[in-house]
Amino acid sequence: MAARVRYDQRVLALIEVRGGSRDWAEAESVFEAHGWPVVGHEPRGQGASAGILSADAAARVYRVEIRLYGAARRAERGATWQVRNAARAAQLEMYVRRADRLDRDSEMLTEWLAYSTAHRAGRLARVARRLARMGVFDAGTQVTGGPGEAFRLARAGLDGGSPRAVAVRPMDGRWKRPARMRRERQFDRRMAVFSIGTLVLVSSAAISAGQNGGSRYFWVAVALVAGCGALSAGGTVDLGRRWLNTAMAAGIIAMALLFTLGEEGGLTETGGVRLLYGLTLLTGLWLLVRQWTWGEWATWAVPLTATLLISSLVGAGSVLHALYADSLQLTPGDLDVPPMWQFLSALRLVTLLMPVLLVPAVWGIAKHYHYVVPGERVGGLMYVTILAAFLVAGGSLAMDSAEEAASLTEKAARQGHEAPHYYGVEPAWTCVEPTVPLASLPGEGPRFDPARPYLAFGVAGGDAVLWDRRAGEPLKVPAGKVRLVPAKSAQVRCGR
């Protein structure tokens, strides 16, 4: 028995299979393996294809229900691609002669709860009715349908017994205007378009406020398109009261713009970019991940995730500090960085790498709307592409971050200012007082002068790691033969 297949859309396809009985049996096995029920079949030129396709004893036409993920729009295209991929994998000659999307949307029927009516007699009937509306006398029965249907269903004795003494109370107000209610998936789609359109409008408006020239016109156009889409979806959320719905949608959009784009505490250009990026990322990755099968998880998702976690959370911290040290003519061993700061620097690198995730996110959106052809080779190709992108982007961002921090440190040292910190590396001006005769003090780097302060990076490997502002290069002296005393600034005179 085939495993249950999760899906969003159903497409009835007319599939021609050529090759004879052995290939027909193999095709039926393929349909069953994919969870596609066979509605019927007949030789080509008979049944549904009679008078349309010429007769061929070596070909058979199947009516198969293709079940797939994705949007309703272009679902027939997605189903055709699915069949082609299955035929290619099984080395079968299959042709999708016709594909019709099946629209099976559910009505949004009102839900009712049954409650006992044994309490109605007496002078406290009004109080009893109010308690009934609060659920005090609920009988443990729920029914759906119109008011009359719900009442009759609740009272009916399903086991053949006498009618029950119950009434019903609605759980929502849909029963008052059932003719105007859209079907469930139609309603959900319009609400999704309204919500996403409003968020895109707000973020695009915030971005356009900080732009000039052509880029500003572009973001204004994006905001207008998103606003029109949100307004249209909100106005048609049901089949009646279109003007009232449109006015309510416009009011919600106006309030969103007012609260998010206000002068004080409003959404900035950077905030708009982050909102739009986050919306795209979350939507695209969710649409992508929800379509994964266990095979795709095992093929590339799990190795990719493991690779990124290991490389980012274990080695990223040391990589960033190694690049920082190299820019200052030091070695990674010259910086004694606590593990916590290495972990935080790894998280920072992960956040810098986040834009690369737009690649699978956009691919997930395109796959959901059936704009890309799925194939078995796509998983491996995506793995290599995304991993290469992560490595290139990660190396570039890490180098830029480390080089910029090292450059600011050198500049601060030359000017005698306070040097910036870099993920646990805290350079500070320090007076270095020898505890042995100066002539017997070994060192590595420029000539040591105890009268002036040095920029100290701390102690690592038994050496005090210093930076000589005059020579513009590092200096190392044995930590056991000097005393490190914090200096107020680079201009103080040491040894006094």
Automatic annotation (TrEMBL):
Q: Report the transmembrane regions from the record.
A: 191-211, 217-236, 243-261, 273-289, 301-325, 345-366, 378-399
Record's protein name: NnrS multi-domain protein
Keywords noted in UniProt: Membrane, Transmembrane, Transmembrane helix
